[in-house]
Amino acid sequence: MGMLNVEEGPVGRPATPPPWTAPSEIERRLYEAKTRGDWPAFFDVLAGTNLFLAVSRRQADSAPDAVFFTPYWNPQTNTQCLAVFTEGMLPVPVPDPVFVSRSLEWYGRAWQDADPPFLAVNPGSPCEAFLPTTPAHRAVWRQHHERARNARSADSACGQSHAHGTLRALHVGGPLHGPVAHGLACGALLFVKNGELWNSMAYHGTGYHHERHRLAEFWGVTSREEWSRSQEQLLNADMVSDVWQFVLGVRHALARDFAGAVTVEHWRESAERVLRRRIEEAGEARITPEGVTQGRTVSAAEAESQVAGVRRMIGRIARYEARFRADGLLPEGSFIRTTEAWDYGRASGMARWGLGARFCTLEEAEQAVLRAGRAAQSAYRSWEDFSAGFTLGRCLHFDEEEFGSWYQEMVDAHRLLTTDPASPWLNIPWK
User: Fold this and answer.
1) What local confidence, expressed as pLDDT, does residue 145 receive?
2) Who's near 168: CB < 8 A, 6+ residues apart?
3) How far apart are CA 418 and CA 201, in angstroms?
4) How far apart are CA 27 and CA 72, in angstroms?
5) Cis ω on the peptide bond leading into residue 40 (within 30° of 0)?
6) What φ, ψ does residue 260 adopt, rounded to 5°?
7) What is the 3-state secondary structure (H, E, C) of the chain?
8) Which stretches of the chain drop beneath a pLDDT of 50?
9) Residue 156 has what pLDDT?
10) pLDDT at site 303
11) Which of 13, 152, 160, 319 has the most CB atoms around it within 10 Å of its CB?
């Protein structure tokens, strides 16, 4: 087998492959570029995606800042090679090994003279290629990396090399229909926002270390026990604010009782009456199985503070809903009944994040995804209804009525998921 020069392609099988359904867009583009012998295009694709490397769990845990190379003997090149994989080619997650991800440019910088003479990309697949690792070849990798970086409009804030706000799916290896797909699609707003594969049940995310970092930084989750506790809270909608649910529940009851629209002032007055009655009842003694229990007395100042807070919350929700209607997230004349979607959508994500961090098994993650889907179906009437509830929860949690990125990211994801022909929301019935 002859060595190809830098301007030609890497070593690989003859470009006469049979028809092949690639797992994702990345592998499809690699396959097509290889088939037509367009190696610059092949490198452009590689430079714009994550390349995953298998590492022993023990090494990954003991030295999280290091990356260990474990070469293998490849009979095609008759040399040692280091195998890396694009995300659509990753195997089902198991406890050991784990996968870490790096860019093509990183491999170009990290490579040393004693390392293998070839980087094997997706070995054994129709889109495989064996990249020579001489200094001249690695310089070409870095050139393509610069081109890919300049082409991206913005760097990912969640570790993804892919552009945010894109609908990406696995066409092989990920469910596209059925109950599991429905549960996965409940997390689609977040996964579209992050540019992640919406239906990757066998989830590696952006690699073992990143998934652990994500859970530790944003959720305070650093163990299986903490993951399990957070997962259950989300599945039971226990993280959603009681104040949000209270004021939305009052309006829903009014709309049901009066069979019509509820004005903001009527809503405020009714919520205040209900709240004051609850505060009074909370201070009364109660008979329990343990005997007579004295309730908690709320001071007049605290009561007034709670009432004022509820009235302000009603104003915030009313203004968000008005903006939702203007931007097409909420039909005219309709309103949001509950923000439980904020927890159920994150529960769908938490199941996969826990799997990527190896805090749970694939079976446990799948069961959590199924539960998230069933809970969402019980609370909402449609994907659009669910989306409005999720977006309101996210905005009340983060946005502070700035209508900034916390809001706009959901508007963009909602529009994509309700219009793109490939969207799960257009291909999976709500019930």
Assistant:
1) 87
2) 24, 25, 162, 191, 195, 196, 197, 198
3) 22
4) 22
5) no
6) -175, -175
7) CCCCCCCCCCECCCCCCCCCCCCCHHHHHHHHHHHCCCHHHHHHHHHCCCEEEEECHHHHHHCCCCCCCCCEEECCCCEEEEEEECHHHCCCCCCCCEEEEECHHHHHHHCCCCCCCEEEECCCCCCCEEEECCHHHHHHHHHHHHHHHHHCCCCCCCCCCCCCCCCECCCCCCCCCCHHHHHHHCCHHHHHHHCCECCCCCCCCCEHHHHHHHHHHHHCCCCHHHHHHHHHHHHCCCCCCHHHHHHHHHHHHHHHHHCCCCCHHHHHHHHHHHHHHHHHHHCCCEEECCEEECCCCCCHHHHHHHHHHHHHHHHHHHHHHHHHHHHCCCCCCCCCCCCCHHHHHHHHHHHHHHHHCCCCCHHHHHHHHHHHHHHHHHHCCCHHHHHHHHHHHHHHHHHCCCCCHHHHHHHHHHHHHHHCCCCHHHHCCCC
8) 1-7, 14, 153-159, 285-286, 288, 292-293
9) 44
10) 87
11) 160
Whole-number Å distance between alpha carbons of 118 and 131: 5
Strand duo 72-74 + 51-55: pairing:
unpaired
333 CB neighbour count, 10 Å cutoff: 8
Q: Are 105 and 138 in contact (CB under 8 A)?
A: no
Q: What is the pLDDT of residue 289?
A: 58
The CA distance from 101 to 49, in Å, is 10
Return the pLDDT at 7.
Answer: 46
| Spatial separation of the C-alpha atoms in residues 66 and 60, rounded to whole Å | 8
User: pLDDT by residue (tens digit) across 129-151?
Assistant: 999 999 999 999 999 988 887 76
Q: What is the pLDDT at residue 287? A: 53
Rg over alpha carbons for the chain, rounded to the nearest Å, is 26
**Cα 81 to Cα 116: distance, rounded to the nearest angstrom:** 5
Tokens of 62: 């003991």
What tokens does 218 get? 């944003």
Strands 118-121 and 286-288: unpaired
- Phi and psi, residue 425, nearest 5°: -70, -20
Domain positions in the chain are 25-151, 179-240+341-426, 245-325
Contact (Cβ atoms closer than 8 angstroms) between residue 206 and residue 101: yes
Alpha-carbon distance 137 to 260, whole Å? Answer: 70
**Residue 371, both tokens:** 């539960």
Count, residues in the chain: 431
Q: What is the largest CA-CA distance in the chain?
A: 89
